[in-house]
Sequence to fold (750 residues):
Amino acid sequence: MSAQAPILMTPLAKKKIGHERRKLFLGLAFISPWMIGFLAFTLYPLLASLYYSFTNYSLFGSPKWIGLENYINLFSDPKFYKSLGNTLIFSVIVVPASIVLALGLAILLNNKLRGNSIYRTLIFMPSVVPAVASAVVWIWILSPQWGLLNGALRLIHLQGPPWLSSPDWAKPALLIITLWMIGSDMVLYLAGLQEIPLDYYEAAELDGATAWQKTIYIVVPLLTPIMFFHLINAFIWSFQYFSIPYIISVQGSGQPADSLLFYPLYLYQNAFRYLKMGYASAMAWLLFLLVMVCTIIILRSSKSWVNYGN
Amino acid sequence: MNNKRLFTLASVILVLSMVLTACGASATKAPAAATQAPAAGGPVVTITFWHGFNAHEVDFLNGIIAKYWTPTHPNIKVVTTGNKSNDDMLTAMSGGDSPDVIMGGSSEVATLWASQGAIIDLTSAIQPIKAQLESEDVPAGLEWGMYQGKYYALPFVNYNWGLYYNKDLFTAAGLDPNKPPTTVDELKADAIKLTKVDASGNITQLGWMPLNDEWRALNFIMNQGGKFYDPATGAPTFNDPNIVSAFQWDLDLQNTFGLSKVTAFTTGFNQGDNPFQLGKVAMYIDGCWNPEFFKLNAPNLHYGVAAIPYSDPKYANANDLGTNPIMIPVASKHQKEALEFAIFFATNKDIAREFSAEISNLPQITSELTTFTQDPNTQFFAQLSTSANAAAWAPVPYSQKYLDEMTSAIGQMYNSGVAPKDALDAAQQILLQDAKGYTK
Fold:
């Protein structure tokens, strides 16, 4: 192509470009507080931890580069597998359980009965109680001898298990605590239920559909976008579950018998109890990869079951 | 101004005030009682002292500092902050605002922090008083503060563990309440006599509390000749035959009644309840601070204290002597003053005596062991701390991981039926691998 003569800028064109540039700067200026925060408190620590995962670092002194040694050691660490197993088992149970429970409660409370708002509020309240406060109260409720839960079971002549003192019952106990806070997820589904046009229900009734059939063929398909969002969120959250297991397992030890040693708990122990920051950073990045893989799988699968409607 | 501008201005002021509040908030500090006017010609240096005590112990500590330190050291003002956990201290030491003197919340942190360069080597600072320190202090208490043969922490009020036994339950079972078991064979025989089982095989009274707690376990193991590490190399020796046999002995004893029955019994108590205090367990291992506890919470409990039974007399009177290590962070900006205070605090006999009595621990200075308390049970523990077999159970950098691996192994042995040899072999492999990361 032959060289072109330089394009002459008309005054109007110059003004337009200047105007665009000003808008750009203005926009950048407005997001600069967030941008600075993001760079300093999210991106930089992220990249720093990636670097540390290839080093031996204890918070004191300078990091010593050791390449992939942390990752290799992780794969031969029995506690790595134990903690990963605990987290996976718990996630596989708690995520479907919370979807079913949240959806079920939302359907039950999606009517115009009196006192509805009271029930919704009561169910929602546990999710705004701080995690630490909930955990401490639940430790008492789950006490084998004096707790309310075993007391209630005794009323119906059942011998309650030792809950947090038994490795077999510690995870079910944690499941109960976690599902108790289902309120915020239920509200999500309630909102989605409000969106379903009543005509659909009426049309279904005309065809003679039972309540169950209405649920299966109308409610669930139309709520799949919310279920999809909830599924991804719940998986990501469950892989990072830290605060409540930390409090209820006696100073974050994951006891009894490592049944509550979840992945983030073991990560925390490695970082702050053994001062193996590099090792802990490697654990963090493996977790990131795992969560990313799970999310991609769920995303790919969504095409087959998520119904965005028209 | 129109409404929109007014609203914007109000919002900005509100946000700014919230930001300023957040920035201005700081941890509450409890200054020591008012200092006297500084001596002429000396600038006053203020140093911060972090510790893990809380409630009334904070005030007591400040009172002690005001009574013994302040009058003779008007140029160095000490500001204490209580309720600081090991994690709090770690964060502060690695950040920009480190305290000048810290008292660790557990014995085990000193070796780890020393090995990672978080606390300073005290060798040159204590050179003038090293001979005095080593002759005056209870020897075992000094072990936790040493790393690679150098002092990194000074001991402050020690603590140890011993055998508690219920005299009333002894009498009821036909045993002499003044003759607790001294050997493990006697212990086993007594434990069986003192255990009561109801018609369905459930335990209603347990003779011997199982070793399913790492502190009971390691103290018991020390009396069976178990060695947790090799002093020459610093390597762990968790599958030492004496350790394996100690756990095996305990499991066999519990299996006399059924381990699951025993576990059901011991887990049936509330978190925070002490089954021994409730008269449901006849013998157990616990710390030297309990006599004061029992005075307050169970004044009618007739109990005695004794050394933990041994398997061989040469292991007798063994106990893990823990301490509250006094350390100086590398990041401290007033190391000279901090050292002066730390050395004073850790070697002053009055402070050791008074603080031990207050928190039911044992003075780290031998001469005070006989004068700090009138309680015969506490006096027993004080004497126990000077026994030849009193020691730090594992003064190695990986001791925190060691504790956690022990807890896991105990869980496997007592809850999941894994044989001691297998559980300890597996834990030993993990610890060996971990220990490689630390230079001895």
